[in-house]
Specification:
46% helix, alpha+beta, binds zinc ion
Length: 200
């Protein structure tokens, strides 16, 4: 995807100096949750107001029965621009994970298919689908609370998907086969020639 990936790495790459140092510095000081003390600890991170909001939403989601125990918020310029909770079972949408719901809502609210300059706070380490969605959305940073291991312990185990990535298509649990490449290439060729396309 050429341009798209280079743009992606340009946004997500660590050399920008907007990585982990940011939460321990000015960004968090904005909320008075912590000073720029270099002895920043995991305990203080737990007091992050955005993650606290995501955790609150995840608890509400369990109580309401609308979906799994997951929530996410998207933050830009110190403000929450979108919230998302898991809606898989209540909307019969297998892709309605909290991160995807939050990303869709943030993109809609910001009127942009890229979440440049945004931070995503999710209550659990993203699954492979959400990780893909995150890379396509290109936020500046992602923070998570529970680990994938924590999720596996309560029945949300995504190891299978990671294992499937390693297998040839024919050996995947859901086998994949190729059909009609020549015909399908017509759309790619039309895209290449299109002068007024919106790249992403
Ligand atoms: Zn997910």
């Amino acid at each position: 995807m050429g341009v798209a990936w280079s743009a992606c790495y340009g946004t997500l790459g660590m050399p920008r100096g907007s990585g982990w140092d940011r939460i321990s510095g000015a960004r968090v000081a904005t909320f008075g949750a912590a000073s720029s003390d270099k002895r920043w600890s995991a305990r203080n991170e737990m007091k992050n107001p955005f993650m606290a909001r995501a955790i609150e939403l995840s608890l509400e989601n369990v109580k309401s029965g609308r979906g799994g125990p997951f929530a996410a918020v998207v933050v830009k310029d110190g403000k929450i621009v979108a919230e998302g909770t898991n809606r898989v079972t209540s909307t019969n949408d297998p892709t309605a994970h909290a991160e995807v719901v939050a990303i869709r809502e943030a993109a809609r609210a910001l009127g942009n298919f890229e979440l440049a300059g945004c931070d995503l706070y999710t209550t659990c380490e993203p699954c492979p689908m959400c990780l893909g969605a995150i890379y396509w959305a290109r936020p500046a940073k992602v923070y998570f609370a529970n680990t994938a291991h924590d999720a596996a312990k309560i029945g949300f185990d995504d190891r299978l998907i990671y294992e499937e990535f390693q297998l040839p298509h024919s050996r995947k649990r859901i086998p994949m086969g190729q059909l009609m490449r020549e015909e399908a290439l017509a759309a790619f060729q039309a895209w290449e020639k299109k002068h007024d396309k919106v790249k992403y």
